[in-house]
Design brief:
The protein has about 475 residues and is of the alpha/beta class. Helix content is about 35%, strand content about 15%. The chain binds nicotinamide-adenine-dinucleotide (NAD). The site of nicotinamide-adenine-dinucleotide has 25 residues, from helix 2 and strand 2.
Amino acid sequence: MEQNRREFIKGTAWMAALAAAGGGFGGCMSLGGTSSMSNFAVAPLKKIRVGIIGIGSRGTGAVHRIALIPGCEIVALCDLRPEAVESAKKWLKEKGKPEPKYCYSGKEDSWKALSDNDNIDLVYIVTPAQLHPPMEIYSLLAGKHVLTEVPGAQTMDQCWEIVETCEKVRRHCMMLENCCYGEMEMLAWNLCHKGLLGTLTHAEGGYIHNLTGRHMEHPTDKNNFRTRAKKAQALAKPGSLVKSWGNTYPTHALGPICLYMDINRSDRMETIVSLSSLAAAHQEFAAATYKPEEWQNHLKWATGDMNTSIIRTAKGRTIMMQVDQCTPRPYSRINLIQGTKGCFYDYPPRLALSKKPGEHAGWLSEDAFKKAREEHKHPLWKSVGEIAKKVGGHGGMDFIMDLRWAYCLQNGLPLDMDVYDLASWSAIVPCSAKSDKAGGVPVEIPDFTRGAWETAKPQHIGDVDLGKMGFDPSTAKKDKSQLNV
Ligand SMILES: NC(=O)c1ccc[n+]([C@@H]2O[C@H](COP(=O)([O-])OP(=O)(O)OC[C@H]3O[C@@H](n4cnc5c(N)ncnc54)[C@H](O)[C@@H]3O)[C@@H](O)[C@H]2O)c1
């Protein structure tokens, strides 16, 4: 209810401001006078002038990938560290790419000049998580399209502010959820949208990734994996509690599932319950790895080893989500999607298909699954998979993601994910924390679309036309050097 009240107050404030400015109240009143960003598209942008903020680990990869996309030009770079900008510039020069005309560095807010620069169409944000929301909002207000690394926001207020800003300025604002473009995720998307799994009823996703060693180096900064150990050590006062609630990293698992189920475009996430398990693995790892006097053993590791959350959608589907970043288990995003006629289940990938709804179906044999995998491979992976694997970036999915937004922008199509996806997927962090803290009570997930989900068209995640984009795919397949990677 709290969120609805806030929405009402903010909505009316916006309407009053519009009235004072002589604006009309056309369109959807619940959206505060603006219309929905669902299925939003802009006129084709044949040449996309990109500015990248944050040239660290992910940002360097982004520079390398975007530089390969015909029609995209990296015209601006920004990082707090001048050496990061210099190194990216040097790489682009070595690869014979145009030199970025605008470079910014040195100050915490040097990035604002990039966002303000009128020679940029799109701001690509790859900084630490806590910087994403201010950078998104500022860049939107400066009239830029925005693509941001995960998470798009960290608090509920930020989610709303990003949505409202986006609706006001009418620019794209998409979270770069690369896992949506994984080969298995796209296969599952295709199975769902071909109707082969029947009516979708349930999904499971996770982020099972043992990062205990990394947490021991910098336990107090959840948002930046690479914070130096020194900083963490300084913060590690004896007896300090290392505690977080709910699902702290949901989007890699949830993003693909939301696209399978067309969430925010015919269904929406309504409620979440969340509970965390006993906390044991960090403490035991610290005791077994470090001397009793070392700072790692001064902390009380209290974040539950496993958090399990269940989301219920408006159509009554359920999504089970888990996050576990500390117990010994091989990496998994779980990635299960269940329908009335079949089930896809990853890690390792398996498929069960029945001829009739509800009829028993076992997992396909290795050969049958191989055949099905080829037959139902997503068109994007059919046409770009080989190239994407050569370029790299999480097995190719990062490049497919970048190619796809570039293609959509160049052809005036809606992007595969919109600002409502950004907000609702990111909002799982505060919503699940609220539920977990209260002992697993159901918590309402706000409808950031304010009703537009009921009429929004499901997004068709189609192929890209490499020829139209300026690639010569036949040469690229044969000759790795064409890609200059
Ligand atoms: N999608 C994925 O698979 C994936 C994987 C890892 C990280 N991430 C996300 O990517 C983001 C970046 O992660 P990373 O691993 O590259 O981190 P990183 O620390 O390697 O890079 C961050 C960069 O931002 C720069 N920076 C910090 N403050 C700045 C400011 N005020 N202005 C300009 N630049 C600033 C830093 O100097 C650094 O170069 C994080 O938000 C993280 O959550 C996503």
